[in-house]
Write a structure and sequence with these properties.
single chain, 208 residues, mainly beta, Acetoacetate decarboxylase-like, eleven-stranded mixed beta sheet, three-stranded antiparallel beta sheet, 14 strands, globular, ADC_dom_sf, Acetoacetate decarboxylase family protein
Length: 208
């Protein structure tokens, strides 16, 4: 998709995984738009869109911020994110995403507080979020799995494990871009804010 196009190849080299990090984040989800399947993986899918804004307070490449979204999920025992859109404000993180996990990272500018009013702006696209947390803080232990296609049709599967604290939130989203607005639905959605957490993203393993 145009939001993920970038011909640059000379990114600063990043260390290999695992990548531990302390994070704050806003996540939201909604049922996939009818056209979202076009931007997802081949094969069986779960028609759910999952997106997040993340503030990495530290990491092997230093602090950085990120937006990523999966228009649909890969079906499986544990549904996996299939990420065609991900952007960060760190050049070494771009290298890490593309080299270690086959994630199509591009550079973007970010502003605001990830747990409140936040923006991500790239070449020809922009996403704004406004998180309204509700209710008590609760512990969270879990993780996310993603599976990215390789050049020969193989899948690069990896997991990120998270432990921290969260609150339920309503997240208002405004997404604009050549393809983003077709599948990342603007409006107010169910979500959570991770008020504090530590996570580690492990190495990708190849599956066919």
């Amino acid at each position: 998709m145009p939001e993920s196009d970038d011909d640059r190849i000379d990114w600063p080299v990043s260390p290999p995984p695992p990548w531990p990090a302390n994070v704050r984040a806003t996540l939201w989800w909604h049922r996939s738009n009818p056209g979202a399947r076009e931007y997802g993986p081949d094969g069986p899918i779960v028609p759910m869109t999952l997106a997040m804004m993340v503030d990495y307070l530290d990491s092997p490449v230093g602090p950085y911020r990120e937006i990523l979204a999966s228009p649909v999920l890969r079906r499986g025992l544990i549904p996996a994110m299939a990420v065609p859109f991900i952007a960060v404000d760190s050049e070494p993180s771009v290298h890490g995403g593309r080299e270690h996990w086959r994630l199509p990272k591009v550079l973007a500018d970010f502003g605001g507080d990830v747990l409140g009013e936040f923006t991500a702006t790239g070449e020809g696209w922009k996403v704004r979020t406004s998180a309204s947390p509700r209710g008590p803080q609760l512990p969270i232990v879990g993780g996310l799995t993603f599976a990215q296609p390789g050049v020969s049709g193989e899948l690069h599967r990896a997991s990120a494990r998270l432990r921290g604290r969260f609150r339920y939130a309503r997240v208002t989203v405004d997404a604009d871009g050549p393809t983003l607005s077709r599948w990342l639905r603007s409006g107010t959605h169910h979500g959570i804010v991770i008020t504090s957490g530590s996570m580690a993203t492990g190495p990708a393993r190849i599956a066919r």
